[in-house]
Amino acid sequence: MTASTVTPAPEAVDAPAPRRKPRGSIHARSPLARVLTYVLLLFFLIIVLMPAYVLIVTSLKSGREIGVNGQWNLPSEWTFASWEKAWTSLRPSFIRTFELAIPVALISSVLGAANGFVLSRWRFPGADVVFTLILFGMFIPYQAVMIPLRQIVHEIGLPPGISTLVFVHCVYGIPICTLIFRNYYATTVPVELIEASRVDGAGMLRTFRSVILPISAPGFVVTIIWQFTSAWNDYLFAIFMSNTRNGPVTIALNALAGAQSPDYAASMAGALIASLPTLLVYIVLGRWFIGGLMAGSVKS
User: Fold this and answer.
1) CA 204 – CA 94 distance, rounded (Å)
2) In this structure, are residues 112 and 223 in contact, taking their beta carbons and an 8 Å threshold?
3) Contact criterion met (CB below 8 Å) for 89 and 244
């Protein structure tokens, strides 16, 4: 009698269950919901762009076409005379504002990075108290300290103008830059990296210069955009610490728009010219801005 060998049947393998799309995803909604979503987005986009449309159209009109009734109409005669007038008036202060915003963004970012590194990874007695006092400067209204600040600057001997504004903006930029870099270093930079540099004999300054700075690009993107924009658009410090002869572009723009018989087309063109640098900064660095903010927001 021959024994037959029974080959066991292969076990059935369950097919993977189809992945469900999250309920909140726009692809999981009905076509009507998607259409309504895009319609609302388009509506809000139009609302946001309406002032920009009026600015551009008015700046390209001749003087006789400018008025409340025809502000939405396209110019019948396109002219760049207002742009030439605005640029002639703003050019000296426009260049001075670069001399203000670029040093402010770089200096305050480097100081904030140094403070953030020390307060996050190189602890010392009273570090939390020092950090709290630094942050306290973020919550002091500028208007409350403007007169004492002007007196202090006068006693130090700083002349009114760009040099004084660089000093003031760097001081007031240290708290926010310190906060951004402290959160970035505390949550993103591994402790083992700093311990390895200590084992290799690097001190605090060498570790900061050779190890920390090369990996701090996301934090620098955030602080440079923030400080550049704050210094470029500032008017309160500028009106107290400078004048139309040695101040930034916001002072010259106010003088251009605040004349007894203002040229609205030139004022609109001047506003657009004054906003171009900050717009370019956001276009060039904006793709890293949100990533830099989020880099120090959660602990990995």
Assistant:
1) 40
2) yes
3) no
Neighbours of 84 (CB within 10 A): 12
pLDDT at 158 over 90: no
Note the pLDDT of residue 112: 94
Q: Residue 163 to residues 99, 102, 147, 208, 232: CA-CA distances in angstroms?
A: 9, 12, 18, 28, 14
| Contact between residue 265 and residue 87 where contact means Cβ atoms under 8 Å apart | no
pLDDT at 105: 95
Mean pLDDT of 250-258: 86
Distant-in-sequence, close-in-space partners of 211: CB < 8 Å, separation ≥ 6: 193, 194, 197, 202
Quote the tokens at residue 202: 């690097």
**Tell me, what amino acid is at 299?**
K
8 A C-beta contact, residue 229 and residue 281: yes
Q: pLDDT band for position 255 (50/70/90)? A: confident
Residue 149 pLDDT more than 60? yes
Dihedrals φ, ψ of 141, to 5°?
-65, 140
pLDDT score of 1 = 45
Who's near 274: CB < 8 A, 6+ residues apart?
A: 90, 94, 249, 250, 253
DSSP annotation of 6: P
Residue for token pair 């924009």 = 229
Three-state DSSP state, 269: helix
**Mean pLDDT score of the chain, rounded to an integer?**
83
Q: Which residue has the higher pLDDT, 109 or 244?
A: 109
Residues 6+ apart with CB under 8 A from 142: 172, 236, 237
Q: How many CB atoms lie within 10 A of CB 178?
A: 28
Confidence label for 300 from pLDDT (cuts 50, 70 and 90): very low
Return d(Cα 61, Cα 86) in angstroms, integer. 14
Burial (0-12, 13-18, 19+ Cβ within 10 Å), 287: exposed
